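Entry 14. Structure prediction run on the chain below.
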Amino acid sequence: MGVFDFKRRTKLGKWMDRNRVSQEWMIKNIPLNRKTVYNLCNDIDHEPIETTQLKIISKLRRVGYDVKADDFWD
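Output returned:
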């Protein structure tokens, strides 16, 4: 990859960037596997299973974010 090549971010990855939620925070607080979090943020073809989606939405709501699954996944 060259200096100007950037990875495409998923809807969740872009949301995390805007809200300053780190991948490390997700790993520690949800908890999720490091590779899963990476894929959730960077692999636009990755569609997490429903239980993973529910874990993420539930935790983000508990800490005060007004989010729903279709904000991130189709």
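The chain has a mean pLDDT of 91.
Filed with the rest of this week's runs.
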